[in-house]
């Protein structure tokens, strides 16, 4: 039977048999000592066999743990987190030696908890001078001494080891002898009681009764030196390594028992934990069925009671849930107020009080110690954390807003440059549009249901604006042009001829064309705003001041759909087809572009040809400049508003001001910096000069009758404006010549009402002194003693 174990252990079979069935005992008599071989009985031999098996298992387990620790060890010390998983406190109907050992370890850990948590917390309150209610708690050190004391009086484990040593030859009657000796040694202890078959210990978690039957048998984990010598004689190095003890033949004493090993390991564990900062996790089993929603209330109450949670909760309720050193508290919550961010200058105690007052925390919810602040309820701590998170959230939003604005600006600049690259080296550019920001929706489609009705329910709008369409006779007609990812729409207006809405002007869908049906776009090489959209059936001769943006988006969507580029043609002689209608013939029409004067196109129709004359624009290789590249005029740069400059009003009369008719000869605004010196032309309509006699003085524009600023019927505003401007003063002496202005000026084409405190408001015809021009579209000017920003496309340089 021992052949296979001897083979596995690498020892001689006869010697293994000898060491399991007998042992050597050293006896001393006077000055002499001799060794006696004692033969073991069956019960003793079984104990020896079990002790060897348990010793082998324990040492292999320790070897694995040490090997893992060595592999994880680092040359330098670092902070670490360790997890200690132990059995909880056990109370069964019948409790034996195993429950006794487990509950002893729990008593030792509870002692640490008392030392490091309950006792230390109350002592901290005293040291910090905090007022609080004293809580009486049970100190379980007396129970630990009852179990592990060696002398005066000896503890339960010491008595148990003594009984196992004196009655090693037999197990019969050993447990009763143990009970009798316990009654004699600790019978009068206040936390110990005995009964017929065992004893009761008053643990911190409650009373537990232990049955002494089997105590001595399970404690006899005897691993005599004979067995250690046998293992050290193994032919396997691994077996010899598991038993590294140095045996001294002159000092062969009693081997350790299971209880003594547990006591030593528990004390080593306590010493290790006392060097750490422990955090406790109490596990509660709601049932024994391991099923969800199976709640055994009696079992849960039992565990809450025996885990000592009630005392912990009582101490916590009487004390403070949160405490922190002043400087650490200031460091964490400094962001709550401007006075404490980024650092508090002054006494730390006053800084903490300032923070607590800033969140309106009740004074009874916290106390100030000598070096720490104590917060009573978790809700108050949650208030601080929530306010802190809100601050971080608000600052994060500021950063996000700035970043999104930056990305949007980069995106618009990229779109503008991509659009400019389409016309680069092919077409002259306008000074007032090359640096313009792209808006896309110039009609406000979100608030135009009368236009939305022609589109799909959730169709995205890339571009929307009013354009001018020229028919077969070159007659201009206003149309709303809408570009979506798949179609472009031309929407006009017609008078209803019959029905309940007879006589009303209604929107009518004139065209809905798929983008893949567009065969190309034709433009001139000059700075005009004309272009031709070629289709399969008929072409569209259109004019739009936002042609660059429109064509760039059209090219992009066309390429997405057809996987090919949209054909673009640049010539000064263009041709477009017209659709045959009734008796009128179809055929083609010609458009010829010639060099003229000024930046406004002059049209002259003759038969089937339209001649467009316009002055030279910027060179064909002109590119838009990025924001901030060109310096403004006069003074330091003033940051433009975060929103883009509004587009100029469209239509015959918008925002209370009349539209300037085509061909009036007035120059448009200049947003492109030219190297040559700019000259100022005469104003289009000069205000009457002040006379030197007793005649009534001409009032400034703001003192005229302001009724024309209201939104009147079409054409009335222009009449009133002409009347106000055309009024002549009574005859008087020759007025003195007006002094020549020192800087550039501009005249307001439209009324503008400032939407922010740093914006300038003006009416139609107001003359504004230009202080700075910016490529973003926002200019800085001076009017009526006030300086501010205004959109450059609402004015015209004079």
From TrEMBL:
Coiled-coil regions listed: none
SMART domains named in the record: MYSc (SM00242), SH3 (SM00326)
Molecular-function annotations in GO: actin filament binding; ATP binding; calmodulin binding; microfilament motor activity
Lineage: superkingdom: Eukaryota
GO CC annotations on file: cytoplasm; microvillus; myosin complex; plasma membrane
Composition skew (Low complexity), residue ranges: 636-653
Keywords linked to the UniProt accession: Actin-binding, ATP-binding, Calmodulin-binding, Motor protein, Myosin, Nucleotide-binding, SH3 domain
InterPro entries: Ie/If_SH3, Kinesin_motor_dom_sf, Myosin_head_motor_dom-like, Myosin_TH1, P-loop_NTPase, SH3-like_dom_sf, SH3_domain
Stretch list, region Actin-binding: 266-288
Record-annotated Myosin motor domain positions: 1-389
Domain SH3: from-to ranges: 741-798
Bias type Basic residues, positions: 720-737
Composition bias, Basic and acidic residues: 663-672
GO biological process terms on file: actin filament organization; endocytosis
Region: Disordered, residue numbers: 611-745
Domain TH1 as annotated: residue spans: 427-616
Protein family: Belongs to the TRAFAC class myosin-kinesin ATPase superfamily. Myosin family.
The name this protein goes by in its record: MYO1F protein
Organism: Agelaius phoeniceus (Red-winged blackbird)
